[in-house]
Known about the structure:
Elements: H1 2-15, H2 34-43, H3 45-68, H4 72-100, H5 102-121, H6 126-154, H7 160-164, H8 166-185, H9 190-199, H10 202-211, H11 219-224, H12 228-238, H13 242-256, H14 276-284, H15 288-306, H16 309-314, H17 316-323, H18 328-356, H19 358-384, H20 391-422, H21 429-458, H22 460-481, H23 493-496, H24 503-512
Amino acid sequence: MADRRVEDNAVSGQLQNDHRIADFDPQQKPKTNKFAIACAILACTTSILLGYDIGVMSGANIFIQNDLKLSDTEISVLAGTLNIYSLIGSALAGRTSDWIGRRYTVVLSGVIFFVGALLMGLAPGYAFLMFGRFVAGIGVGYGLMIAPVYTVEISPTLSRGFLTSFPEVFVNLGILLGYVSNYAFSKLPTNLGWRYMLGVGALPAVVLAVGVLAMPESPRWLVMQGRLGDAKRVLDKTSTSKEEAQLRLDDIKEAAGIPMHLTDDVVSVPKQSQGESVWRQLILHPTPAVLHILIAALGIHFFQQITGIDSVVLYSPRIFAKAGITSYEHTLLATVAVGFIKTIFIFIATFLLDRVGRRPLLLTSMSGMILSLACLGAALTIVDHHDRTIPWAVALCITMVLFNVAFFSIGLGPITWVYSSEIFPLKLRAQGVSLGVAVNRVISGIVSMTFLSLYKAITIGGAFFLYAGIGVLAWVFFYTMLPETQGRTLEEMEVLFGKYHKWRQANAMLKTKKVDHGDGDENKGQVNYE
């Protein structure tokens, strides 16, 4: 809303009198705010922590199993329980971030993970290692919730998709670093190699703790505390103009229930949205729009994980070994290639989100994942039914794994976090996003802990056929339930939701709504939704 009004007011001033040749020049693209980008990068450093753990465990679990003499079940539990433990962090993060602020919740996430990484690196045995993963999991849960919330709240509307995709970018960067760490420390003695792999994960947490000193607080959180003066100063730094900053502030004040005539640096804020009433509005008595938002957010998180991306990433060395790559060094190198592909395609996605839109990328991504999972299942089934190595089937397995992570990274990976963090109303955002993270981590933990048992029960090819079938259901859900949010302000989201398959009508209304530019009109530049 704010960004459109800035553009509309500028255009109005040009066309009120005569039409000059310059008026017909192509409209300039909005400037990218470098300070907002820097803030988003610092906040999203928390996402490296999860990515590193996913990547490093794919190789470290083999060393851990050999060193501590663990069974496949114990390794599955070790790999998957961090996701379950992160539920504690994500559940606490909503209330914590509303209490101490988004900025210091980012710091808390880094501190907790730092302690957990050190405990894992120093673990003398399985029980101590599990305790370290418990602590690290809480830190990951905090980071997964707060990074997208902070980024979406500090981002200008026209670059929100680009900036809010940063958490997934850093998850992928963390995965790549984890794979590289596996390869770098694989030459060490077994009892040292995995400890170095896990312990090095503490380094990003240190960088985060130092870098956060340069981050401002979220302007939307500041408004919710009644600190309008501080919020205005942050918006001035993260907007492309003073006028845009003022319009963004007006939108946030309206969403927070603060009367427009209140302009003091510190004002009182209505308290009805705090505590238990937030959960009442979100779960017990939601409006049709909030119910639709909740279904969409939880659904996209559910399908992001249930389609098996963690099985592909976490167990890629085993998949390549099953396909016929016998050399452990070659297996790790192939796994590093997976990390590079994920990172490259997530960077491509960041530049497409605000140009192409969420829905086209999401549906294309899911279609590619379905095809690659089906082909991977077919190739692994063929390999399973032959005693000798079949070169073309091995090549197809490697190619389909790379295709799968590429299609995931260009759509479903980043859009899940962008979409779920931008659609909730301001007063419900922290708790809403924490619910999405909880669903995401539960399903991720289930997939991680059951993959080895699943492929033993229905064959490894059958497991990927199952994921492909679930992918078809995901595509139908995305097509029918998720409106396009590109170009809409955070304060406009409720207009799009609540109509389910008729969301296009609401989107068309927002696009065609006329703005009154008449002289002396008190509501100049305002959009009326009645």
